[in-house]
Amino acid sequence: MTVRAFLDYISFEKKYSSNTLKAYKKNLDDFEKFILSNNLDISIEKATYKEIRSWMVFLVELGNSKRTINRKISVLASYYKFLLRTETISISPLKEHKALKTEKKVVIPFSKDEINKLMSDDYFSDNYTGFLQQTIIKLFYFTGIRRSELLALRINDFDFSQSLIKVLGKGNKERLIPLLPEIRDQIKSLLDYQNVDKIQRKEDLLFVNNNGKKLSTAFVYKTVKMYFGYVSSKIKRSPHVLRHSFATHLLDQGADLNAIKDLLGHNSIAATQHYTKSSMAKIQEVYKKAHPKEKKNN
Q: Which of 42, 79, 129, 167 suits a disulfide with 46, CB 3.0-4.6 Å?
C-alpha cells in the first residue's frame, strides 16, 4: 500500500510521466523480489543499507553498469524520502550512501556542416513519409525539444502568427519556443501535405503516419539515426545528440546560457552547463583572439 501511495504521489503531485511511473514501479518490484528470493523476512520499508548493498552487488553480477545501478538506487532514495515525509520511517537507510563513481559521458554534437548537408532535400524520399522525416529532424535542430515533447505536439500548440510553439515538458511545465521562418514554413507545408493526402488523424497530433496514427518513439529514433548515417561517421546518432547540437551551436554563437536553459526546459543552470563542454574549443579560440595579452604576444 505504501508503494502505491508513493506512485500516486509522483503521478499526481510531481506530474511524472506514465513511462517514469512504470520504471519506478519495476525498480521497486525488483528490489522486493530480491529481498524475497534471499529469504529475508522484511519489507522494503524495513530494509537496511546492508540489504541494499547486497542488491547492488547482485546487480553488478548481472552485468548492470554503474550508471544503471545509480539510477536504480536513486529511485529507492526517492521512495525513502517519501516515507520520511509521511513519517512512515524515521531515518533513510540511504542517508550515508554515495553514488558509484562513473565516467562522464561526453556527447559529441553533429557539426554545422553535417546538419546543413542533411537539411537539403537530396536525402529524403519524395513522398509524405520523407517530408515527415525531414520535418522531424529540422524541428529537433531548430527548437532543441525532447523526443517525447515532439511526439506530443498538437496542431493548436503552434501559433503561426506569432511564430511560437508551446511545448509541454517534464513535470507538465509549459514553455514557449520561437520558430524561425524556415521551420515555421516547414510545419505549414507538412499540414498542407497531410490535407492533400487526406490523412485522417486519430488525435489532434501534428506528427502522424500515413494512417493518421501517432508515431512511435522507435520511428523517430530510427529516423535520426538513419539519416545522419548518410552525412556523419559518429557512432551516437540520436534525437538527444540533435538537442545537444542545438544548444552547443547556440553557445558557439554567443547565446546566453540562461536563455538556452529556458529554451531547453531545464530546471537549473547546472543541467545546461553540461553543454559547455562541447563548446570549450570554440570558447578557447574566441578567448585567444579577443584577450589583449594574447594580441600583444602576437
A: 42
- C-alpha to C-alpha distance for 58 and 241, rounded to whole angstroms: 32
The SS3 call for residue 15 is: coil
Q: What is the pLDDT of residue 103?
A: 73
Residues 6+ apart with CB under 8 A from 105: none
Integer-rounded Cα Rg, in Å, for the chain is 23
Q: What's the pLDDT score for residue 284?
A: 56
**pTM higher than 0.90, yes or no?**
no
Per-residue burial over 122-133, b = 16 or more CB atoms within 10 Å of its CB, e = otherwise: ebbeeebeebbb
Whole-number Å distance between alpha carbons of 186 and 127 = 14
- 2-85 topology per CATH: DNA polymerase; domain 1 (1.10.150)
- Positions marked active-site: 146, 170, 240, 243, 266, 275
Residue type at position 117: K
Q: Which of 146, 168, 148 is nearest to 157 (CA)?
A: 168
Q: Residue 114 to residues 226, 227, 232: CA-CA distances in angstroms?
A: 13, 11, 6
Domain 112-288, architecture per CATH: Orthogonal Bundle (1.10)
